Sequence to fold (525 residues):
Amino acid sequence: MKLSLRELSVSFRDPDGRAFSALGPISFEVAAQQFVCLVGPTGCGKSTLIRVLAGLLPATSGSARCDGELISRPMDQFAIMFQDANLMPWRTVLDNIALPLEIDGVPRASRYETVRALLPQLHLGNFEASYPAELSGGMAQRVALGRVIVQAPRVLLLDEPFGALDALTREKLSLDLLRLRQRNVQTIIMVTHDISEAVLLADRVLVMSRRPGTLVEDIAVELPRPRRSHMIYLPEFLRLAKRVRESIETLNSL
Amino acid sequence: MRKKSHDNTENRKDAARVAAALCPVSPLLTVGCLLLAWQWISAREFISHILVPPPAEVYQAFIDSLADGALVKHASVTLEEMLYGLLLGVGVGLLIGYAIAKAPLLESILSPIIVAFQSTPIVAYAPLLVIWFGSGIASKIVTTAVIVFFPTLVNTIVGIRSVSPNLRDLMRSLKAGRWQMFRHLEAPSALPVILAGLKTSTTLAVIGAVVGEFVSQGSGLGYLVTSARNLYNTPLVVVAVLTMTAISLSLYGLVAYVEWRFLVWRRRPSL
Fold:
């Protein structure tokens, strides 16, 4: 599915009632099955952008469309992954992953079957009966990933999904994500703070300005797929990472 | 030096172990000590037996009132009033609490009335309730309902309002309907707070029922207390009071069990 943003902007009201601009105007297109990473300074409106695309927040002006249809509510075949795992503490791992299926009215036996088939790939084989409080941060985030996978989305919105994890765990999880994607290729928009992560995963890295975030640079990443963790030592990777870094640093020095 | 500190931690561990072992029986120990003190005081006759009857007399009154069926009769009346009162008060509290949590406008409309009701002593307007609802069981049910309504209301509002906004977003992105939002998100996340409110409500329910029985005579443990006092039958007064305690402790225990059974995820993580 193809996404297109045209002059999209969002403004909020502060407690005194004054409007302030949080995002945009920003325009770009994402081709079907493309993986795009958004990087930019803290508070530049990346998460706001994700929320608009998820249909959770209305645009103040401009538009976001998916295959030509205006996004004004949560769309079919979209899935979102949040900054924290965002699990329901009263549900077991099994029931947390099965939640989207339950909402869709899939019978219990069949949704459990689907989830149980998925657990080994998520390295959660022995944890189906565990509660979120018993999981480590990385495990919790893999549950959240599982909850996205069962939705079989065609557009995946990732809001810094691995931000709270240590470097090695996040790299492992992001490569897990790529591997799972090989089977069912989606359009992905991912917000991240991590330049290496952006370059390693994406087809394109979009650099956003400070608030209100606009597009300052659109960098194509032409590394071969499937991506491997050792690619971070390739000269091409280093050249791209340097370019993204310089682009962000120019912003910060302004 | 090192040896000593080692001993200290060992001692502390021992103390912790003893405390852990005593934990389940410590309430029994307290009750046992109180009974001993009671026996001792009444045996010495520091105070007249009419004021503080010895445990043996109370026990005899307990057996007698069981034998002639009076205790069971009055206790079941009070229990019935409490249960219906809880059902009504908690039910209405849940409904209005949910409505208020969802519509802040409703809160500004209703809260003056609710707070006024809550801050007026129930004992003061219980006679009014008897005038309105008659001297039968209905007025006692209403008194109980009024007193258990407030904790349920407040806890429902707090519970529903504390639902995680991120989980709300998740449910919206999954295109959950209104009922699914309630069933899968709002109800389970408010449940711990609501059950905490229900625990308070069960202990208040006995107050509501007994206040009602004090005001309009007829039957129930409150009536038993008044009539036994008029006959200077202090042992029977004590029996009635202890029965109230037993009823309210049992209901509290029942809710605590429900909590333990249904909030598995809130028990200590095993990891």
In short: Residues 178-215 of chain B form the longest helix (38 residues). Chain B has a mean pLDDT of 85. The interface with chain A takes residues 164, 166-167, 169-176, 180, 184-185, 188-189, 191, 263-265, 269-271 of chain B (CB under 8 Å).
